[in-house]
Amino acid sequence: MDAQEALARRLERAKKLQEQREKEMVEKQKQQEIAAAAAATGGSVLNVAALLASGTQVTPQIAMAAQMAALQAKALAETGIAVPSYYNPAAVNPMKFAEQEKKRKMLWQGKKEGDKSQSAEIWEKLNFGNKDQNVKFRKLMGIKSEDEAGCSSVDEESYKTLKQQEEVFRNLDAQYEMARSQTHTQRGMGLGFTSSMRGMDTV
């Protein structure tokens, strides 16, 4: 009888272990179904409180997946740009990804015809006083509206700007000539070289 009792006890233990394993398998299947449902809906928010209320054990991985899904849903709602599925949701910030995509679109978007900055207009109206120099400058700068810049009507503001530029160029030329004459005619001056020192070398 002892052998039969031992065998009965072993069978009971085996049944209990099998029941526990089945419960664990059922819980894992529930978790996988929840994760699959979240992935299938494309970032729907998992309600962790509802999972806790239903008695399902919430692991840190499920909580992290719920948080990432919430961030992706928020980014999609605010920007309209979804993070591709091939990115790891834990490694990519959906808001920064959306900003980056917007910048890419703006960078590669073609410019409109009427879009000219204020500095571009100033460069086009720049006048060197010589038509050949103006044409050469426009070619070097890549300005294609050569005829428009040469024939455009000059208003008061642009006329003042042109006069100021001419004055600046004249001042720069004068300063350059003065500096050049000083460097060529007063060579050896400064840093202790004076006429009295030169006289001492001959003695």
Automatic annotation (TrEMBL):
Residues passing through the membrane, by range: none
Residues of the Small acidic protein-like domain: 123-192
Signal peptide boundaries: none
The entry's keywords: Coiled coil
InterPro entries: SMAP_dom
Pfam families named in the record: SMAP
Stretches assigned to coiled coil: 1-34
Homology family: Belongs to the RSRC2 family.
PANTHER family cross-referenced by the UniProt entry: ARGININE_SERINE-RICH COILED-COIL PROTEIN 2 (PTHR22426)
Protein name: Arginine/serine-rich coiled-coil protein 2
Organism whose genome encodes this protein: Microcebus murinus (Gray mouse lemur)
Gene from which the chain derives: RSRC2
